[in-house]
Specification:
CATH class: Alpha Beta
Number of strands: 5
Strand order of the largest sheet: 1-3-2-4-5
Number of domains: 1
Shape: globular
Number of helices: 7
Oligomer: single chain
Amino acid sequence: MSAWQRYETLRPDQLRAAVDEAPVLYWPLGLLEHHGWHLPVGFDGLKAERLCIRMAERTGGLLLPVMWWGAGGGHGEFAWTFYQDAEAAKKILRETLERAALQGFKALVVVAGHYPWQPLLNSVVPVVEHRHPDVLILAGNEMALGRALDVPVSGDHAARWETSYGLALLPEHVEMAALREGRTSADWPNPHKRPRPEDVPKLQLDPGHALFSQVGEDPRGTATAEAGEAALSALCDALAAKVAAKLKGA
């Protein structure tokens, strides 16, 4: 097995040698989005990247930089959040996957840390698969990937499960003590334009609440690194085994 490498750090000759040795490309999809008071705004991309690295450590291959610009979700009016046009994001997905297939990769693994990437992937991946039937494409958020591989993985937004994944994958960026009551402002970029409760009924919209911006079960007392590790380890095992089998038969 070859060591994995970061795509952007290599020269053309090095890239060709890397693809010849292990023709697998990992691509983490993220977003910059408010993830509660306790998680970084880049949580989705950081989570996806670290999952990709775990798999690449087993299979070798190349890791693309995180795709930070995506679309969709209920946090568009929250501070520190950037959403882009969905059609633009879809075009980037399609052209990147198509280009990767043409460059000799036999397995493309796209891990979407931001869950609303899923409908965009669902519309793009079948097109690329049809054009390149010899290329294995595994693409989706952790829940969709888990369903495809019969590995149960739960999800939410910055609540019990994502916090557990953060504690397992990037504990240095998680601050549980930040989940406290009493803040008086969320620094809405436009104070006259905030989400309406009826549009996002499960989303905590009170900035004075400790669980502001979250959707799901209170992570305090329920989120653990052990729970996150158990779910993600099983998912990485299944994904890496699928990639290894493809590379063995390529």
